[in-house]
């Protein structure tokens, strides 16, 4: 808040009465004596919006019981995050009972925190080795702090409706992001169980392919790492091509766009890009599955750099290109049984933050290269005009090539539209767009990165795409003729 400690006291004198300017008003909270007496004094309780935040009869016993139940419900936890806390009785009790744990205290209204400090002795809390107080921080920051405490498996979450009612919209948004992370963790666990054998096989074959290329036993192709490109294009504009329907709108002008920007194509957009007569500067392919390789199978882009990872489907390493730049694998190499030396060598290639989509990896690669502005074409994260993919993309061509009189291409399109849990949201013009929870999770990832890296400006070339907070809309005409 930019405060000095003396600001919190009347007259700026430390040790004086609390400065009422930084405390909740009587209309916001009512501090009352409870029936419980300790050392001759009534333990304080409080009411807000006509509801008691703590027990009127025994707030300390209530707090002790709550602290014990937190640990019983989360036996493997080593940290606890309190979303709101009233006067802090339960926080203090938890600190006393589990002094070796870490604490995260989340409160969007700093006045609520300072008010609690004037009512209850928080000394046991601040005696802990690791305690973080997140006041008026974004929900994405809170999620990052939880990850730093070991993630949702190690950090218990306490969200008492009585303590969150004063900022229900904030805590609702935070709960939504926490649930998205839970879903991501569930998906990652299921993915590991299903694909671990395939990943190990791919990594073993690709390691040999790299050795053969480096030792002249296979077609020569330079092998580098994404770290080699760190800051190499500082201040340049990047244009990332995804395979959403709106990609078709800019393909006729792609050659001119390449004259002004570094062009990065995700694997799904490469076929449409090449059909327009343009080889991108970089191609990003980070999915180890065979179906990801199908997007580039049979294609060639001799002037491009292919950005991929060691677990990619093996034929990817034979894709005709100028160079292969390896990033650190998104696969959990330690859990797959690879040794510390191998894992460390892989990490040294440079990490691309993955939000579950190749487009997120492409954004992070552009950022790592030093991009000042990142423009997206085809990042629709939904189905504008009920279209599913750009014309000329691998998906669209596969649908048409496999269609028949009894199973026309439109049938596949309908399946893609309504095969998931669909919902309505808004595009950049405020109009409705059909999307799903998976694509909304990608949008949240981009939103969090915009907050984390405010110096990197992100844009969408299409107004009809799912609106991503933190992104702006730019027309191709404005980009080419500023």
Counting DSSP H or I runs of 4 or more residues, the number of helices is 16
Low-confidence residue ranges: 395-419
User: Overall pLDDT, averaged?
Assistant: 87
Q: Any idea what the shape is? A: elongated
Distance between the termini: 38 Å
Tell me the fraction of residues in β-strands, as a range: 15-25%
Rg result = 27 Å
Count the beta strands: 18
Helix content: 25-40%
Strand order within the widest sheet? 8-13-12-11-10-9-14-17-18
Based on secondary structure, the structural category is alpha/beta
Biggest sheet features:
9 strands, parallel
Map the helices and strands.
Layout: E1 30-38, E2 41-48, E3 51-52, H1 59-73, E4 79-83, H2 89-97, E5 102-107, H3 110-119, H4 123-126, E6 131-135, H5 139-148, E7 155-158, H6 161-164, H7 168-214, E8 222-225, E9 237-241, H8 254-260, E10 262-266, H9 270-275, E11 282-284, H10 290-294, E12 301-309, E13 321-327, H11 340-347, H12 358-368, E14 373-377, H13 394-402, H14 409-418, E15 422-426, E16 432-436, H15 437-452, E17 457-460, E18 471-473, H16 476-480
Parallel strand pairs: 4-5, 4-7, 5-6, 8-13, 9-10, 9-14, 10-11, 11-12, 12-13, 14-17, 17-18
Antiparallel strand pairs: 1-2, 2-3, 15-16
């Amino acid at each position: 808040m930019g405060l000095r400690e003396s600001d919190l006291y009347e007259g700026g004198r430390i040790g004086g009465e609390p400065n009422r300017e930084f405390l909740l008003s009587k209309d916001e909270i009512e501090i009352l004596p409870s029936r419980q007496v300790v050392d001759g004094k009534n333990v304080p309780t409080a009411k807000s919006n006509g509801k008691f935040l703590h027990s009127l009869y025994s707030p300390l016993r209530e707090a002790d019981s709550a602290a014990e139940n937190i640990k019983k419900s989360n036996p493997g936890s080593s940290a606890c995050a309190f979303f709101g806390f009233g006067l802090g009785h339960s926080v203090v009790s938890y600190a006393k009972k589990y002094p070796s744990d870490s604490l995260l205290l989340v409160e969007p209204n700093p006045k609520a925190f300072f008010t609690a400090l004037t009512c209850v002795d928080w000394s046991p809390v601040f005696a802990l080795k690791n305690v973080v107080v997140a006041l008026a921080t974004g929900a994405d920051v809170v999620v990052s702090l939880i990850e730093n405490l070991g993630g949702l498996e190690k950090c218990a979450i306490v969200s008492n409706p009585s303590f969150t009612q004063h900022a229900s919209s904030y805590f609702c948004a935070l709960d939504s992001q926490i649930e998205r992370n839970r879903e991501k963790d569930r998906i990652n666990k299921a993915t590991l169980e299903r694909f671990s054998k395939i990943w190990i096989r791919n990594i073993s074959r690709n390691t040999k392919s790299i050795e053969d290329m480096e030792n002249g036993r296979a077609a020569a192709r330079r092998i580098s790492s994404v770290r080699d490109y760190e800051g190499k294009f500082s201040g340049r504009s990047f244009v990332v091509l995804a395979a959403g329907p709106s990609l078709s709108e800019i393909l006729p002008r792609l050659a001119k766009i390449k004259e002004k920007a570094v062009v990065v194509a995700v694997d799904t957009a490469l076929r449409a890009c090449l059909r327009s007569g343009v080889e991108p500067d970089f191609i990003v392919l980070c999915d180890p599955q065979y179906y990801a390789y199908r997007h580039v199978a049979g294609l060639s882009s001799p002037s491009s750099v292919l950005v991929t990872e060691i677990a990619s489907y093996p034929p990817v390493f034979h894709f005709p290109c100028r160079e292969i730049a390896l990033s650190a694998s998104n696969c959990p190499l330690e859990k797959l049984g690879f040794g510390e030396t191998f894992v460390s060598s892989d990490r040294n290639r440079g990490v691309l933050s993955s939000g579950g989509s190749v487009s997120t990896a492409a954004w992070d690669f552009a950022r790592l290269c030093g991009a000042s502005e990142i423009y997206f074409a085809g990042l629709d994260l939904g189905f504008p005009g009920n279209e599913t993919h750009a014309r000329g993309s691998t998906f669209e061509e596969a649908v048409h090539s496999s269609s028949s009189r009894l199973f026309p291409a439109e049938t596949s399109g309908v399946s893609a539209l309504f095969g998931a849990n669909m919902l309505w949201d808004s595009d950049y013009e405020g109009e409705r767009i059909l999307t799903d929870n998976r694509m909304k999770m990608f949008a949240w990832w981009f939103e969090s990165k915009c907050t984390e890296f405010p110096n990197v400006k992100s844009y969408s070339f299409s107004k009809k795409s799912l609106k991503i907070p933190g992104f702006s809309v730019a027309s191709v005409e404005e980009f080419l003729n500023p």
